[in-house]
Specification:
alpha+beta, OB fold (Dihydrolipoamide Acetyltransferase, E2P), five-stranded mixed β-barrel, 2 helices, 7 strands, 33% strand, NA-bd_OB-fold
Length: 206
């Protein structure tokens, strides 16, 4: 049976993104995203909040966009997968950390608060997340080596829509012509209603 490793987050950045380049030439951006779970205490009736921090990693073109347009407090939508890796700290001790590797992201609320937000989530492979039917994990050989090309979504040409509408109107014309009113000779005669009460005696006393 296939397994699933997928995370969806909507939250705010706790600090400005940290962008760097690896020795292999890959761009990497690290952010900390805060999500808040709210509930009401049934004993006191007070509203309580619980904030969770998530470490998210972006690569290549996504990392460039994150570093250029996002800052502390920016709201973002992220889809990704959990990954646990080992690293060596400055003290020489090996440690483990769990982070989210972003597969798709969408800026919410506009870029730097001024420009319009992105219409569709940006994926690492450059494809829109709309219409995706399944989730797949990249192979270990290409774990973090993702291309820099991202497909830009563009609206459908207006000319094509106008041509389609024109053809639809033309195809409907013969049907409209066949629905003309029937001639007087073809109209069925109106049924003659019987009057059952005419045979009753008018002299019946009441």
């Amino acid at each position: 049976m296939a397994s699933v490793n997928k995370v969806i987050l909507v939250g705010n950045l706790g600090r400005d993104p940290e962008v760097r380049s690896t020795p292999d030439g890959f761009n990497v951006a690290n952010v900390s995203i805060a999500t808040t779970f709210s509930w009401r205490d049934k004993n006191t009736g007070e509203r309580r909040d619980e904030t969770e921090w998530h470490r998210v990693v972006f690569y290549n073109r996504q990392a460039e966009v994150v570093g250029q347009y996002l800052k502390k407090g920016s709201q973002i939508y992220v889809e990704g997968r959990l990954r646990t890796r080992k690293y060596t700290g400055q003290d020489g001790i090996e440690r483990y950390t769990t982070e989210i590797v972003a597969d798709a992201m969408q800026m919410l609320g506009g870029r730097n608060g001024g420009d319009a937000p992105m219409a569709e989530p940006m994926t690492r492979a450059g494809a829109s997340t709309q219409g995706a039917g399944q989730y797949s994990t990249p192979s270990s050989g290409a774990r973090d080596s993702f291309g820099d090309e991202f497909a830009s979504s563009s609206p459908a040409p207006q000319a094509g829509r106008q041509a389609t509408a024109h053809v639809s109107r033309q195809s409907a014309t013969p049907m409209q012509q066949t629905r003309t009113a029937p001639s007087q000779a073809e109209r069925p005669a109106a049924p003659q209603t019987s009057e059952p009460f005419n045979d009753m005696d008018d002299d019946v006393p009441f």
